[in-house]
Design goal:
This protein folds into two domains: 82 residues, D-amino Acid Aminotransferase, Chain A, domain 1 (2-Layer Sandwich); 139 residues, D-amino Acid Aminotransferase, subunit A, domain 2 (D-amino Acid Aminotransferase, Chain A, domain 2), CATH 3.20.10.10. The chain contains eight helices and 13 strands. The two termini are 30 Å apart. By secondary structure, the chain is α+β, with helices and mostly antiparallel strands.
């Protein structure tokens, strides 16, 4: 489960030092024609992560939103000991075709902040993606249990049952992950890699890309996309509702 936490005293002390390059958290929102999506949910995630690291969240979200250009792209909120910033980058967000993934050789620490939160210390995820021979890569934790993808959260289906790694396995709670959990019965837990290889369907979730089907894992083809397809329909409806202001 995704719970909040008390700020760490040592982190609060380090936040006052001049050099703490690891100490910071961020959230990235998709923006469509100047309208940011799932603002409330991203704000809750940012507050939860900032509290855990002992950081002070000072972002005026409504004020920052008024400054957004009427363009599409990504809007990133960053909280560090020096304050909170909002950064916008214009870019297209085209539909994503089913992708191929591999398994990273680097491991996540399931208890580490950089596994459970979107911290500016993003090195393990970046290293895994840089070393991968595929567009996306699966990360395991120190127990060789499935944790996440480098750039998203993972779900898979066997028969009629959906599965996803527990937050405690080393994944981020994630806004789109939360969207899926609210709309489907999903079993959260600590799963070995073999469970993923035996899946009938696999997909990942990401706030910029939405719900992305996986067609191949380490050379093993995955040919079913039905659960992801139905969830995408619901997700697109939710996006249109937000864009219409209803």
């Amino acid at each position: 489960m995704c719970r909040g936490g008390k700020g760490n005293v040592n982190a609060m002390k380090l936040a006052k030092t001049e050099f703490a390059p690891w100490l910071g958290v961020f959230e990235t929102l998709r923006v469509v024609d100047g309208i940011p999506l799932f603002v409330k949910e991203h704000g809750a995630e940012l507050r939860r992560a900032a509290t855990m690291l002992g950081l002070n969240l000072t972002l005026d979200i409504p004020g920052a939103q008024k400054k957004l250009p009427k363009r599409s792209g990504r809007w990133r909120w960053v909280v560090t000991p020096k304050g909170t910033r909002a950064l916008f980058k214009a870019e297209k967000c085209d539909p994503v075709e089913p992708i191929e993934v591999s398994v990273a050789t680097v491991r996540l620490g399931s208890q580490n902040w950089d596994a459970r939160f979107k911290t500016v210390s993003y090195l393990t995820h970046a290293q895994a993606r840089r070393m991968a021979r595929t567009p996306e890569v699966i990360l395991l934790n120190e127990h060789r249990h499935v944790a996440s993808a480098a750039g998203g959260n993972l779900f898979w289906r066997r028969g009629e049952r959906l599965f996803t790694p527990a937050h405690e396995a080393g994944c981020r709670c994630g806004v789109v992950r939360g969207f899926v959990l609210k709309r489907r019965q999903v079993e959260e837990g600590h799963f070995p890699l073999d469970d993923l290889f035996e899946a009938d369907e696999i997909f990942l979730t990401n706030s910029l890309k939405g719900i992305v089907s996986i067609r191949n894992v380490e050379g093993r083809p995955v040919e079913a996309f039905s659960s992801a397809a139905s969830l995408r329909v619901e997700y697109e409806k939710a996006l249109k509702k937000q864009l219409s202001g209803s």
